[in-house]
Amino acid sequence: MGKTKFDKRTFSIAISVALASTLAAACTKDGGGTGSKDTAKPSTELSEAGKYPIKTSETITSWEQINNNATTFFSNLADTPFGKRLEADTGVKVKYTHPADGQSKEQFNLLIASNNLPDTIEYDWNSSYPGGPEKAIADKVIMPLNDLIDKHAPNLKKLMAQDKELEKMLKTDSGKIYVFPMIRPENGLVYRGPMIRKDWLDELKLPLPTTIDEWETTLRAFKEKKGATAPLTAAYNNELNLQDAFIGAYKTANRIYLDDAGKVKYGPVDPQFKDALALLRKWYAEGLLDKDFALNSDGKAYDAKIIGNQSGATVGLLGGGMGKWMDTGKKADPKFQLVAAPYPTLKKGERAFIGQREFKYAPAASKAVTTAAKNPELVVKWLDYAYSEPGKMLFNFGIEGDSYTLKNGVPTFSDKITKDPKYNLQQMVAQYTKPNGPFLGDENKSFNTYPEQDAAIKIWEQTDAAKHVVPTFISPTVEESKEMAKLKTAIDSYKEEMFVKFVMGKEPLEKFDDYVKQMKDMGVDKMVKIYQDALDRYNKR
């Protein structure tokens, strides 16, 4: 980065001083996870593209998050059964640096400000680098990968040739491919939604709620007849994580979204958003919505409400929510049962306007190759292994005969993984696989241990989210990014501040128009236009 103006403008000398101690703490035990720009290049005999193991004596360096479940056993990916097998299969030794948990953003910024980049960095280059991937390439931080993939990554090249929409997702507006992507399988796009205590519904002889009115009746029954102190709860991390459940019933969203005509809108200034706020305000006042929802950033407190019979409904994850809570809840009460509920609508039989749905390309867990890479061809060949058939099996399932076996040709996690008396499924799997990262996801991979989880996906995917969710990989221009940096953080912060005040009754809803005017004055229309222009360019790629 020394040859660019980015670090000089954005990062102070104090950050550079802090860099030395921070990165040292994050490095591997044998000395560091970042590459240097030495002119000396080790002699390397590379095998033919797509052939493994590669004959090389080089070590490459990778900066990436390590899964929290894996850290139950190992502090570094190189020491895991997955890391050791990946090295054996590819022939490439890798020195990993992992940012401290909860400090990824800060340590990424420090890393970019340094003159000591690793060969590859796994991060969200779309939203986390000022100016996005086009600017990162212009700043000589990462390199365009078109030619390298064409010559040295036959597995990813084949996938892109077969799926032009995927190829389009991986490019900037100027046509530069900038990452090796995490590719979700079709059945991995939906994994979060409303869920409710089915044992309570059965006891109270209530149907599974589908409309806002039915939900209100159910939540009231949970409060009055089951003693629930927080009938509906949800996680809170700078905003109430309802994933547009309940709010979406009013044909809007608690974020940027696309309307029925495909135009970008900012939901929190829609007229109908006021109706959604009125509903949540009413539920809060009546004790149907968790009175302490803004304190639910602590995962333990949130979990305690679900499994401690304080709450009977939430919006949560399939594995880390429903599966985890069922495991714990059933130990205390064998009748404990959570099931998925449809995203609620205003009218019976309506299809939900929006819900949680991801795209096949996941920017947050994809890898770019930096300009510091001494041998980018080797890095690209190593990365391409994840898209080969054996690589796909390793990244998704681990080691055959150890973490999984084939049953009628279908990979199935072994009893060693699924029946450990001390550790849960996610913890065991994380030692042998890479739960998130640049690889091709497999539709047979599942952490589901209950039939209720299998059923949940089919229920939650019954929304029009595919039409209304804005792609996360559209690319603002450098100038647009500068403008966005001034606008979005302040707008979103003000929105959430007012959201909480409106719901809690600290601000009267009569002030909604004043709130919208303030949003306009803050530049919300400019922000929407930036999204719209970026989306228009994406659609023309």
Automatic annotation (TrEMBL):
Residues 29-51 are annotated as: Disordered. Keywords: Signal. Gene3D superfamilies: Periplasmic binding protein-like II (3.40.190.10). Residues 1-26 form the signal peptide. InterPro entries: Bact_solute-bd_prot1. SUPFAM superfamilies: Periplasmic binding protein-like II. The keyword Signal applies. This is Extracellular solute-binding protein. It comes from Paenibacillus ginsengarvi.
